[in-house]
Amino acid sequence: MFNNTEWLVQVREDVIDPDREIVDPHHHLWPRPFLSYDLEELWSDTEDGHNVTQTIFMECGSSYRDDGPERFRPIGETEFIAAAAARSATDPGKATIAGFIGHADLRHANVDDILDAHIAASNGLFRGIRHAGAHDPDSATFAIPGRAPAGLYRDLDFQRGVARLGERGFTYDTWNYHHQILDFADLAAAVPGTTMILDHFGTPLGVGPYEGKRDDNFAKWKDDIAAVAENPNVFAKIGGLAMPDNGFGWNTRALPPTSDEFVEAQAPYYHHAIACFGPERCMFESNFPVDRLSISYRTLWNGLKKIAAGYSEKEKTAMFSGTARKVYKLSPATPKGK
């Protein structure tokens, strides 16, 4: 699925601001031969010119156990990532997987059992849970369909599970669609003691019934992002807009986009989110290898650096590394080559 390197290298730019430290707070891995994006492929991207020192793995249904109780099967993913992270730490010249966000069904009455199992299997990497809320009546037609039930955020058992994360010092990440942002805002208000992270700008859709409606959707999205940002426990991952379902169509072109094309198309989303949340609550993300379907890692981070050019040095540091370290409680990276 992700072996599109020959297509991506048709656009090859000089790296902008190569010394700037980056903590990439959102990527996935799938072991061979499933989708063939493992540590080596991650390193091929993170070592392609930008100074990526640490990363956070985000749950993606990878390497689940194929037997035992259903609710403990995600622990297989934790074991897989703990091993990958241990390998990543053996090479001080490359990015280290410094944290892990796992999956659990937060509606379960004994959610502590699964949290304890993640802790035991993660070798100190476990930072939180993503039980995504993405639901759309037409999602079966999307390239990456959301599988959450309707009304998940309003489920009282689910809310108790999200609250339990905060009580134990863990974060809650979510992925939902743009028309669900206000529902997520209600969840954040109902559970103010839990640090929550909205992934991918709330995924503005541009395909299926949303195709050709980008301007109208953007206007509504702006209002909804401003509303969710009023909750001080919510942080924003700003990135993940190059998925096919965002509708920019780059994955279908003969040539991938340049960083200037990326900025022209997507900068308004970034600047609005930063204005609403403030840089101290925003973190740039890659969402690789999913966004790799549309843009290379080198080009993506060049584009993000161009978007950040007008912000202060303190604000840049927050968005490229500081916010992620704060939210996910990461220790500073060991300087490369040390």
From TrEMBL:
Q: Which InterPro entries match?
A: Amidohydro-rel, Metal_Hydrolase, Metallo-dep_Lactonases
User: One GO molecular-function annotation for this sequence?
Assistant: hydrolase activity
Q: Where are the transmembrane segments?
A: none
Please give the SUPFAM superfamilies that the UniProt record associates with this protein.
Metallo-dependent hydrolases
Identify the Pfam families for this entry: Amidohydro_2 (PF04909)
> What top-level branch of life does the organism fall under?
Bacteria
Query: Where in this chain does the record put each Amidohydrolase-related domain?
Result: 23-330
Q: Which UniProt keywords apply?
A: Hydrolase
Q: In its keyword annotation, does this UniProt entry include Nuclease?
A: no
Q: Which family does it belong to?
A: Belongs to the metallo-dependent hydrolases superfamily.
Q: Which PANTHER family match?
A: AMIDOHYDROLASE (PTHR43569), BLL3371 PROTEIN (PTHR43569:SF1)
Name of the molecule in the record: Amidohydrolase family protein
Q: Which organism is it from?
A: Hyphomonas johnsonii MHS-2
